[in-house]
Amino acid sequence: MAALFPPPPGPRFVLRGTQSPVNTLHFCPASQALGSPLLFSGSQSGLVHIWSLQTRRTVAALNGHRGQGVTWLKTLPQGHQLLSQGRDLRLCLWDLAEGRNTIMDAVQLDNVGFCRSSVLARGQLCWMLAIPGKGSDEIQILEMPSKTSVCTLKPEADAKPGMPMCLGLWQTNSSSRPLLLAGYEDGSVTLWDISERKVCSRIACHEEPVMGLDFDSQKAKGVSGSAGKVLAVWSLDSQQSLQVYKTHELTNPGIAEVTIRPDHKILATAGWDHRIRVFNWRTMKPLAVLTFHSASVYCVAFAPDGLLAAGSKDQRISIWSLYPCP
Amino acid sequence: MDPALPAVRLTVQEAIHTLSSSEDVGHILSALGTLKRYLGGTEDPALPEKEEFTTIHFSAVLRCLVSKLSPGWLELSPDGQLEQLWESFFLDGPPDQAFLVLMEAIESTAGPSFRLMKMARLLEIFLSKGRVAALMEEQCRPQTKPSFPLFQETLLNKVVGLPDRLGNCLQQDNLTQFFPQNYFPLLGQEVVEVLKAVVNFLQGGLDCSVSFVSRVLGKVCIQGRKKILGVLVPQLTVLTQDSCLWQRVCWRLVEQVPDRAVEAVLIGLVEATPRPEVLSRLLGNLVVKNKKAQFVMARKLLFLQYQHSTPMLQSLLGYLAVDSQRRPLLVQVLKELLETWGNSSAVRHAPLEQQCYVSKAILVCLAHLGELELQDIQDELLASMMAGVKCRLDSSLPPVRRLGMIVAEVISSRIHPEGPPLKFQYEEDEMSREMLALATPGPAGACSSETGVPSLASVATEAPVETPEKTVDSDVPPVQQQGPDSELDSDDEFIPYDMSGDKELKSSKEPLYIRDCVEALATSEDMERWEAALKVLEGLVYRSPEATREVSVELAKVLLHLEEKTCMAEFEQLRQRALVAVTVTDPEQVAKYLTTQFYGLNYSLRQRMDILDVLVLAAQALSRPRSLQRLSQHGPPGSGTLCAPALAISQPGNAVAPDWQMVVEERIKSKTRRFSKGCPRRELSGGPNEFNSVAGYFFFPLLQHFDRPLVTFDLLGDDQLVLGRLAHTLASLMYLAVNTTVAVPMGKALLEFVWALRFHVDTYVRRGLLSAVSSVLLSVPTERLLGDLPDELLEARSWLADVAEKDVDEDCRELAVRALLLLERLKDKLLSISSP
């Protein structure tokens, strides 16, 4: 039967030139401020490269993290502002409008771990930021751009979940109460209610540290990947309690990042086994195993139009075009 | 005597007198008219008088007519009446006499002349009017008169020899009708007509004999004019289809063929007959009745000849199988075939084609025989089969081994249909498929075709249906258009890609240093690490030659003794490539080690042959420019004929040439006008032959001990397969040592080696020796050949000539001819050097 399936496709194109392992990727749609669609990549050497998807060349390289690896990138809804988190304990806010590449502001971080931050836009010029906190198991919530600390989320003394490994801020469409999903070192995923500073629900869905998670607020379902072999899908019921919905056993252990495509149709995982896996988000049916990279894949990102990008330790960024958005 | 008879004589004498003396047309015409009456159907002269005329006087009249033939005489009657009358005597009279007189007259008339041409044309008309059929029919009739054997013999000779005789007489002026390619088909047609007449007679209750026709047929076939059967057989096939009478006439026809012509006729018939049942209709039970025919059909065609086609073999053996009276003969034939097949001397000395022919015959026999018949001779079959398989599997030629396997599989499946099937592993090729197809048809193969055919058919119909449709524009499988958020959309919304490549990753265990590799391969209990080490070894060796040299011999030892511990894909190739890499990196030490181990005590034949392969591949890599080393393919050297020139051709010319050369060449090309355009050829880039300094280490130790048997290794005895490999290896090494200083002593030593083994019984060994001679001729410089090795060359030459003529193996003969050609070229070169 296997012969009846088409062979897996190759990448649409490949971006080379970071000269360093690629830690994180972020797509930015075409906007007035920046022009053509762009891809941001953060590398272990501390540079943020801006790639034009039309010319497939670097537009600029931002050097703001003093040679320490960039772990997280995100543009703000305005489009011309970029957040970059680096291992030099700084989170920088870049102004990219009209060709400027300057750091407008920076937030000092207190935690040197690998936890990626998360951002939630709450108004035109107002957004909330979740960053790993001072204590090793704390998460700090900031109101931006004023940098005022909203709260610090610290697990109860007897829980001992270890360090937070990944964060996801979100809020339901109906209410404006911000919620935070956090994956911890002990393999548990916790839902925090920020305004009440308490844990709504907590499930232990992995044996190994949770490395990445993503949440689909429409279906109230999320997915998390860990250093182990299991990919877990969990759902959130109306009582704000998490339940394991489904698990999927992988061939090789180690997922660095999980991302659901913006149209909620498919999701992709970045595997330590050099492979990118694509699943049907609704059924979790495996769709493709993409082999191209020769070292661990560290990050996957989707563009709004469905383009998939993966960055790897082998210093390459592969761009794929699969199951186009309708 | 009848009183009327003297009157006939008188009339004839008178007429002849008139003919020979008179110049008057009226007289001549009336005299001829008188005579003509005896031939006509009128009642006027009584029947006895007619008979008297035709038997006694007709020839004399015809001879007289011939003698008068001249342009002037015929023109005596200007309206052509005389000519017409003259011709009618030949065409209407008794055909045998007319034919004989015509032939006699033509042969006795000299040179190109009016009379000769006139008679040749008359003969042409004679043939075209079907008079030859009439002539033969005459001979088949119930003989009322006493027959004259001598007369029949003469007639036979002239009928069959007509093309030759006419060709001799007429030379350039010969008429197309008399060419053999036209005459014999005509004769075939005439024979059919005669047989039709015979059948009519028989239906009318008359007695007939076809012996004259049989003799004609026999004589024609002996002369090798098989065209006659090409006309005859198709018509007889149709005629005998529904008529027993026709069949009996045919059987009689073949039975009556004289003994010495039986072989020619039967072979011709078997060749021309497409199907066994037709052959059976034409021949009847001839093989049972006639000893000679039995010999031809059951022995000569099967055991003494092997040039016949497979369809012919099938129709011959099918003929034996059709009738119950002939089946014992078929069983007998099968037993004898298997006996020959199992004879070890035959396996060694018979050419491959014959072995193939006999094997095919066996398979066809098996397909025709039923279970019960096979049960009876089971033991004999089994004994011969075992003997045959054993000596075939011992052979060093793959096709011979494969023949043994195929035949053994088929026989065992037929003898023990219910037992577990005997199954060998062999590569399928055209021959094996053909052989297996032979074993299936017929009533016996019905059981196997039952399972085979439907599955094939179903595959053929299913395959195209299930092929997934593909959209062309991108690498995207089709997506069914669904509502954006419908939860009810079907499960196969997205068609998955093939995920069979999703295997567990084992990358973490690769050793990074040569020493780690050696340790992992030698001692590691961790199979994953062991496999990873073997996989990376070749690359590591080429990347770090210095480190490799420190442990080269140790590494070679580990690799040589390496056993396949896990079921690993490409184990043999990986191991071989690693060994080659080590040898290339440190040729002197490793070659020394490997060549001594070749004659070591405790090695398997496989390991010894591995050593030889590695040496050749390493030598090949060394004798090439370094930059191309990695590109060279490391396939095992062909186990059949390792053709030395093939190595030479594969020297690629696309080495990295300096840029300026390219530029200059381009410029010259653009400015030069050429009158003849061939494909532009790049110069081969030169480079030192790195094999030069180490060739001796590869070569001489291999020659030292071949004639000293060990307990475990006897090159001149049972281990001739390795000896063959050794000969091929030495030939390759010699060839790769071209342009090296050591080539001359190598050539000398190699020729001595060849001389010692030149009469070896094994074909594979002889092939190796022959290619070794060719390599010597190619690699040793011409002047040194003549200066240092003249005696060896002379000896080799006479041996080569002998092999080229007499060897049973086709490849051996070809190789010998090639070597002889090289010698010739050498001679030409020398002559051209010395002459100016």
* Termini Cα gap of chain A: 28 Å
Looking at the structure, what is the overall shape of chain B?
A: elongated
Supply Rg of chain B.
Answer: 41 Å
The main sheet of chain A comes to: 4 strands, antiparallel
Q: Write down the secondary-structure element order of chain A.
A: EEEEEEEEEEEEEEEEEEEEEEEEEEEE
Structural class, from secondary structure content of chain B?
A: mainly alpha
> Roughly how much helix do the residues of chain A carry, as a percent range?
under 10%
Give the percentage of residues in beta strands of chain B: under 5%
* Number of discrete helical segments of chain B: 41
The total strand number of chain A stands at 28
Q: Roughly how many Å is the radius of gyration of chain A?
A: 19 Å
Question: How far apart, in Å, are the first and last alpha carbons of chain B?
Answer: 95 Å
What composes the largest sheet of chain B? none
State which percent range the strand residues of chain A make up.
over 45%
Structural class of chain A: mainly beta
The total of helices of chain A stands at 0
- On the 0-100 scale, what is the average pLDDT of chain B? 80
Percent helix of chain B: 55-70%
Protein name (chain A): Gnb1l protein
Keywords (chain A): Repeat, WD repeat
WD repeats (chain A): 15-61, 203-244, 290-322
Pfam family, one (chain A): WD40
Describe this structure in words.
- The complex is a heterodimer of chains A (326) and B (836).
- Chain A is built from no helices and 28 strands.
- Chain A is mostly beta strands.
- The relative contact order of chain A is 0.13.
- With 836 residues, chain B is mainly α.
- The N and C termini of chain B lie far apart (95 Å).
- Residues 443-489 and 627-657 of chain B have low confidence and may be disordered.
- Chain A binds chain B through residues 2-10, 12, 218, 251-252, 263, 265-266, 273-275, 280, 282-283, 285-289, 291, 321-324, 326, and chain B through 466-468, 470, 474-477, 479, 481-482, 484-485, 487, 491, 493-505, 507.
